[in-house]
Amino acid sequence: MELKTDILIVGAGPGGTATAISALKKGGKVLIVDRKTNVGVPVQCGEAIGKTGPGIAEIEIPEIAILNPIRGFRIYSPNLTKVDYAKPEPDGYIIDRRIFDKELLAKACEMGAEALVGTNVTELLYKKDQIKGVVASRFGQKIEIAAEVIVGADGVNSTIAKLSGLRKNIKLKDIESCAQFEMVNVKIDDVDLLEFYLGKQVSPRGYVWVFPKSENRANIGLGIGGGMGEKTALEYLNDFIKHNSRGKEICKNAKVIEFRVGALPMGGPNPKNILDNLILVGDAAGQVHPITGGGMGYAIVCGSIAGEVAVDAITEEDTSEEALSLYEALWREKYGKEFEQMLNLQKLLTEAEDSLLDKLAQILSGQNVVELTAGKKIGIFLKAAAKRDKQLLNLLNQLRNLQLVQ
User: Fold this and answer.
1) Which CATH architecture has domain 2-67+94-170+268-335?
2) Under a CB-based contact definition with an 8 Å cutoff, are residues 275 and 31 in contact?
3) In this structure, which of 195, 201, 355, 390 has its CB flanked by the most CB atoms within 10 Å?
4) Which residue spans within 206-360 are E strands per DSSP?
């Protein structure tokens, strides 16, 4: 079986469907393929999304997918010092990824995209040493799909990234291993706040999250840095629930109704995400925040950029790497510096002792945390100086070197 399209998108997650919707708005001809027969399943994330990414991309969050509005967050340091941040009105949501992903795919198809689920890409098609399509398998049938531009939006273990050579293998240290329970009968203090728990004993180079889906139901999970710690992600998660004082409190009567695992690329963006006729988006491109692990919003924005650039390149009959470099320039202009700073901050915080994180929590406000993780300079020098603590002041100087402190 042979097919032909202008833009072939491999992966029907948020990055892939955002690419499709953006391209369709400009009149592009789009085919989306996904190896899953039911997109969004299994769920492999905490299911929190802010308004910013979809807002920038002008993609509406499907109302049917929204479970709970979120106004902010509460961070617990290792000794359970709290740092709160909350807006007057919701700034994000807990969503159901099963519904969210499918509804975005449905939206793309309603706008004119074609879709093939249960389709596994196995090879790239070449013509005169240039990528011109893919070979895939669908329900035992071989399919060849020719395309002007191929978009790899197929996740952390991207087949397109590997086959193209843009990312052969991810180093263990750059992977975050995640485990999560969906639980009922959870004791939730503030249903409109996300909770985060830090510390080497809780989650090495990561954090525990509690994301409320309702007044007594939540996703409780964590991610740990590859090769770090002495236990698996699941073992750390069980330890939090059974032995951490706060974990025991909120999960005393909780029951698990679903178990999920996944992985995140936490080593920053790929050095290069384009070739002649090819673009990478989302996790496949490493477009994940190195501190928060957030990826959906970035994938949606970067996908929307990719869709527009791809259509313009096809219109100009130039889909070369040089022409597609506009995509690299635009998304890196938006997020490149932030990701670079956050990768450096990740390394710094990974080396920090729990006692130092406790001291930092005493002087940080919620607004400081928001600005810090956005790569903005924060003003905490006077608070730190007042503590007269060499360990804290040393950290402050390191943050200043990263241009994160005024």
Assistant:
1) 3-Layer(bba) Sandwich (3.50)
2) no
3) 195
4) 207-212, 217-225, 255-265, 274-275, 278-280
